[in-house]
Amino acid sequence: MPINKNAYRRYKVIDACLRNKMRRYPDMTDFLAAIEEKLDVNTTAETVQKDIAVMKKMPPDGFDAPIKFNRTKLGYEYTNPDFSIYGVSLNSYDVDSINEAIDVISSIGGSRVSEKFTHAIEKVLSNVQELNNKEEKRKIIETDYISEGRGFEHFDLLYSACRDRVPISFIHYSYSRREFKALIVHPVLLKEFNNHWYVIGFSEAHQALRTFGLDRVNAPEPIYKVFQNTSPHIIDEYLNDVYGVYPLRDGKRERVTLHVNPMITNYFRAQKIHPSQKVKMGSRGDAVITFEVIPSMEFVSLILSYGKQIRVVEPAHLAETVEKYK
User: Fold this and answer.
1) What is the set of domains in the chain, with CATH numbers?
2) pLDDT of residue 58
């Protein structure tokens, strides 16, 4: 669950009391007085006891704080004297750098990854905002992202399966064939493209790497089975040579040549859509653009989005596919 920022401020005061070498073994009265002095709020012993219980929990809900009540000294202590909820001390330069990074992370959105990462981001935000004591910043980055698409609820399970190399079974729905199919996949990567998430892995049914949209993945479950490793070289080729996620035909890399009208040429020159892109300018401002890629449905969609401004010169099968969808 998202961190309560008011509670986190109290955690910091409690942490400071426990690390105060001049006043060791603080008791409940010391905690209440420190919170009132530093935060200018009144609280209760019951609330502080709950705060200590949360601090002792394992992450991400707590800090795994080694807090113990010393019955001899009648006060609380860290059994590890070097412990701090900060983990590491930050200077002003560190805080400024973290703030800049968090601005970007916050603009992208924590939900782009998962709820537990959002929790961690909010924990850092609370800490840094308190250390910096700055007024709230205005938003200066806006990204084109829609969160919580269908299938995103499986993100954590699929992420763990990729990380721990655990095969998964799931029911996949094909939009084109309008049918469900049970599959066993050995996942290697989660990929985002145009605001959609995909899982890539070795499919036992296809005996090759395949890409599956999370919106079509149903009831995924980890299974106890030997993981089918895929060579990093094969994974790199699969990822680097394709524009998008769904290759056409047999998924082989080939030369793609486009003739592009003058207006659209400027867009391709300003921003490459693939590292292999090469532009040869014509005398009238038009251009011949070549790529060494695996043609994909996303590449077809890109060409179609420009209408008559782009013509496929080669390969023939790509030109035919584009014409079919016009």
Assistant:
1) 5-78 (1.10.10), 92-132 (no CATH), 152-240 (2.30.30), 254-325 (3.30.70)
2) 86
